[in-house]
Structures are given as structure tokens and as C-alpha cells.
Amino acid sequence: MKLFLLHFLAATAASAFVMSPPHMWTKLILTHHWPTTFCEMEHCQSTIDSWTLHGLWPDKGIECNSSWHFNVSLIEDLIPDMDKSWPDLISPESPKFWKYEWQKHGTCAAKAESLNSQHKYFSKALELYHKADLDSVLKKFGITPSKQYYPFAHIEEVIDSFYGIKSKIQCVHPSKNAVYQILGQIEICFTPDFSLMDCEKESSKKPLNSSVKAEAKSGFSVCDPNVPVYYPPMI
């Protein structure tokens, strides 16, 4: 576990940068979602059986530069990886999901020199996604889609112990008194120099932007630690 963290931090150290402006964001939230849960909510069809990217979100700012339009030709070399790792589950043939993420979050992340272009933003998100390799981590510790329920504490312990930080695990709650909750979204957080950090740890006194808190699709909320978790197999 410690070797993994040392390798992870060493691999990202070359990308470090200094954040000086007081209004600058202080955290990046690498958000994964489980396609089966997402599509059950959004009435879409997906044959993807691995955790995919939802986005890379700075903790401050929403739609920071409306005049900085998305141009898919600037990330043409990334598209094969994005189709697989960061797909639009609702409209697979369209780049509109990437456009949305750039306009809402990328233009804010771009306040940092290391993310100040569309190519830098999307390529860094893909890099962090592959290095975190959440899907493989869960499988390595026997957490796979199943009709059986998992104790929430087991999932949380595996993720947090492996990465050495506190993640944010989100579920869909079918009803107020449901006997289970459905695993849907997992956030892993990074400092401005791309080192792992607690998702609930703030490096400034200002509260987390409320718009980022609400970014998860309607129906996703922090999992209840006392309710069993259903990790649904691909339909």
C-alpha cells in the first residue's frame, strides 16, 4: 500500500505547480460513476462494465469563462481513450458531455498553468483516472458487481486504506426505508500538485463550492454507513 502511494506521488511530482492567487481552487475531485447505476437512473443502455470518468472538478468556480468554447479537434488524439474511459453514457456518439465538463469545470481548472488548455485538462483527467485505477482496486479486493449486498464499511475501508486518503462514496437510495442502497459514484481527491488528499479536507477556510456539491446527478448522495450496499451487475 505504501509502495503504491510512493509510486503514485513520484509519478505526479513532475507535474507540480504553485498556486498563489487567493481565489484559486484548492482541490481537484476525480469523480467516477458506475455505468449500470447511472443508466438505471437515466434510462440509457450501456455495455460498459468498468468504472468510468464523470469528471475532474475543481472545488471552486463554475463556468469560469463562457467565451472559451470547447473544440473537440484540440483533443483529437485523446478521443480513443476518452470514448472508453470518459464516455457519454446517454449519447455515446456525441462530444456534448465533454463540452459540458469543459465549460462547467475545465474553464475553472484552467486557472492553473498546468491545466490551462483543453488538452492539458482532459489529458490530466485521463492520467489521474488511469493511475488511480479504481476499477482494478475494487476487483483486487474482491469487490465486484453482485446480487449480494456489501457492508458499506468494507467498501470504504478497501478504498481509503489502499489510497491512504478519505474518499467520498455516493449511492442511490431507492426509498426512505429501503433495506439497501445502490453504489453509484466514487470521488478521489487531489491537491493542486496532483497528490492524493482527503476529499473532506479543506486547504482553505472557505467552504466547498455548493455547486460542486450538487454536481452529482440527482439521486446520488453520500452513502449511509448503516445500510447494505448493492453493487449492481451490468444489465
TrEMBL record:
Keywords: Disulfide bond, Endonuclease, Endoplasmic reticulum, Glycoprotein, Hydrolase, Lyase, Lysosome, Nuclease, Secreted, Signal. InterPro entries: Ribonuclease_T2_eukaryotic, RNase_T2-like, RNase_T2-like_sf, RNase_T2_His_AS_1, RNase_T2_His_AS_2. It holds the Pfam family Ribonuclease_T2. It is found in: Endoplasmic reticulum lumen; Lysosome lumen; Secreted. The active site is at H54, E101, H105. One of its GO terms (molecular function) is hydrolase activity. It comes from the Eukaryota. Belongs to the RNase T2 family. This is Ribonuclease T2. It comes from Neogobius melanostomus.
